[in-house]
């Protein structure tokens, strides 16, 4: 069992999710509160959520956009999935890319 063999994975997973939340909020993005490894970045516009998801895909990140009917209109968001497998370099790339693309697309 992976969790029994690598107990630090859960700690790393929660640390990575907390890093996404903290750094994206500090950069001015609206992040839904919580501690889960799924980090919702609120966009509140279907076209912008889809455009940002596409831009991130083109830069090498898979971040899914959610819009109606999955979520109510006005609560469109991106779903960022933290992983215990993300190392410091992965996190830095993801955060840098999310912030750069987010500022451009959501401006």
> Reading side by side through the largest sheet, how are the strands ordered?
1-3-2
Secondary-structure element pattern, one letter each: HHEHEEH
Tell me the number of strands. Answer: 3
Query: How much helix, percentage-wise, in residues?
Result: 40-55%
Q: How would you sum up the global shape?
A: globular
Q: What is the overall pLDDT average?
A: 95
CA distance, first residue to last residue: 45 Å
**Low-pLDDT segments:** none
Structural class, judged by helices and strands? alpha+beta
Largest sheet: 3 strands, antiparallel
What is the tally of helical segments?
4
Radius of gyration of CA atoms, rounded to a whole number: 14 Å
Which percent range describes the beta-strand content?
5-15%
Topology:
Layout: H1 2-5, H2 8-26, E1 38-42, H3 46-58, E2 64-66, E3 77-81, H4 88-106
Antiparallel strand pairs: 1-3, 2-3
Helix pairs in contact: 2-4, 3-4
